């Protein structure tokens, strides 16, 4: 049956049809929907893990037990999973193991632009790179064949444009492979030095075999062109830009297996054209490989290693006149991201700014606390870094920083990698105050459940991690819960905990305002007669609040009635 599918949805369908039985992931844009779609198939066990390292190790365990397994993450999540990734390359697999990683060129929802192809080369694992939904579906099925044939985990590299665009997929039926029996094999699976030394040559031999496969596979194909003055090597979404820009004008070598790359196929293609160009996003990965083969090739001197490419950019850099439409009559105003109306994090950041504290931030929708008018966050590095960084910041400057610095971290991020930083605070005794922003969901990636919500991926009741008990268990004696809508209580808690001569945790607990089950009192009413135009209520940056003719105005379609603005108005206008 033919149907339109998102790239991520197509991966999930390919996993399903290939007989995948176990999926463990951590949500991360743009990879999240792969796992959410896989969870819709009853034959597939799917779960959210606390972090990507745990997810990959769980998927490996399922593979070891004989079930085809899968693990998904975004590019920075692969950093977290890198530890098991490199060693799994040595051990190989039992049943097929596929790892999905989605890059985010352009940083639509990420803190860096990272090219995951380097991980494939560094870990010596094969990587497939689809360019549309049909290939995403096909490559997911193919990945299990490669995994079991070559005894290796296989990476599938997605990107934002392939993950979140739709194209036609012709689906089939699920096949159920015979479950592989687990057999004890210490030399293969116990990576102590003596065994690892014997496995390394196996990995190198496997890479040579996969390179030979890359020479003949149909997913690395030459598409002929009418004009051989230029030949283009490309992959992924860049292939789509090339084809839209030039059609069949120039010959194209389209690479579906991005590591290991073929050698003779590329050399032969280069010999068939006058000039060779590589079109690829981010780093010159294919270009460097071509140069290692002694080929004269153009790439990154034409196309930047920063941001995304486009059809027009490809045309422009390759000497084709680009048709540009008329400019809009008026400049379109910018729409920077902002915390939602009623967001429980807004008032905490207002209080932090009011108190002029140094705030080490973390990864989540609450990172928007860095945006004016709040501007309350000083750093954001990676998942969990706020808590670990707070400890170092305070230890390095006890006199000037203790009592004046806090960390903020979401409930899901705290479970992901914040708890180990808190253990470090307790163990090495820094006078640090950590604020856990508990909005009862994983908000940034679209409301996924996590170990603190009491629901699993399918929404069924499950064990709920108690944050207060967990903080006490790791050695934090001072743990208190506040309602972020009560700004006076929040400020009091902060002042008391920062004054204490020991580590402390403040849990700011209020569900995300967008959760369907959260009931709101309704919009605040503004009284323009009482409004003095002081704009104090504007300082929280709520999108439901604006000024009209010098008086306060509330957008009733946005306002949920949280009452935070009312606490700022001294004249009773709200």
Number of helices: 21
Strand content: 15-25%
Mean of all residue-level pLDDT scores: 95
Helix content: 25-40%
Query: What overall form do the CA principal axes indicate?
Result: globular
How many strands? 20
Distance between the termini: 57 Å
What is the radius of gyration computed over CA atoms, rounded to a whole number of angstroms? 27 Å
Q: Unreliable segments (pLDDT under 50, ≥5 consecutive)?
A: none
* Structural class designation: alpha/beta
Supply the key terms.
574 residues; alpha/beta; five-stranded parallel β-sheet; 21 helices; 36% helix
Q: What does this protein look like?
A:
By secondary structure, this protein is an alpha/beta fold. Helix content is 36%, strand content 17%. It contains 21 helices and 20 strands. The protein has a seven-stranded mixed β-sheet with strand order 3-2-4-5-7-6-12, with helices on both faces. It has a five-stranded parallel β-sheet with strand order 14-15-16-18-17, with helices on both faces. Helix 1 packs parallel to helix 7 (133-149) and helix 3 runs parallel beside helix 5 (82-91). The chain starts with a strand and ends in a 6-residue tail after the last helix. 49% of the residues are buried. The model has no long low-confidence stretch (mean pLDDT 95).
